[in-house]
Design goal:
Distance between the termini: 50 Å
Helix content: over 70%
Strand content: under 5%
Number of helices: 6
Oligomer: single chain
Shape: globular
Order of helices and strands: HHHHHH
Structural class: mainly alpha
């Protein structure tokens, strides 16, 4: 369902995107080049135009599907089952991080924070659409950032 306040949703979505990207950047800066090279996501960096096109399709699909599942369906089921919105948000955020566990513990902690702010975005706008767009844009920017970092880190000696 479309949000009632489209302009407010756009601003909140941009704020969420900025916070998510700052979290990603800070997490990246806390790792050495060697630690980054060992990350799972480095093995997923696209190598040619066809792979980039597929990764963009995956980013859109993940942005829509994961928000529908974790901020939509799962949240409602947990809220009903636990009779607590706060507990439902916490469990859903942890479940979202666990679904990304191949990225490692440090990334999972970052993902919990991103999930919590996505819950805020959905709750404050009354719609999943802003979170879906934000998630998709985050994944696309992250993909380009990781590809750039991977290229730079490949030329650096082990630390």
């Amino acid at each position: 369902e479309a949000p009632e306040d489209v302009a407010g949703t756009v601003w909140k979505s941009l704020l969420s995107l900025a916070v998510s990207l700052l979290l990603m950047l800070s997490s990246s800066l806390l790792r050495t080049a060697e630690q980054r090279r060992e990350m799972f996501v480095y093995r997923l960096v696209p190598g040619n135009g066809r792979e980039w096109a597929l990764k963009l399709l995956v980013a859109v699909t993940a942005g829509v599907a994961e928000e529908a599942v974790y901020r939509g369906v799962l949240l409602q089921i947990l809220w009903y089952s636990l009779d607590s919105f706060t507990a439902a948000v916490a469990v859903s955020a942890v479940a979202f991080a666990l679904a990304h566990r191949q990225q490692g513990l440090q990334s999972m902690l970052l993902i919990v924070l991103i999930a919590l702010q996505m819950h805020w975005l959905v709750q404050s706008t009354g719609s999943l659409l802003g979170a879906m767009a934000t998630h998709t844009l985050y994944d696309i920017v992250a993909m380009f950032w990781i590809a750039r970092q991977a290229k730079r880190d490949a030329s650096r000696p082990n630390s």
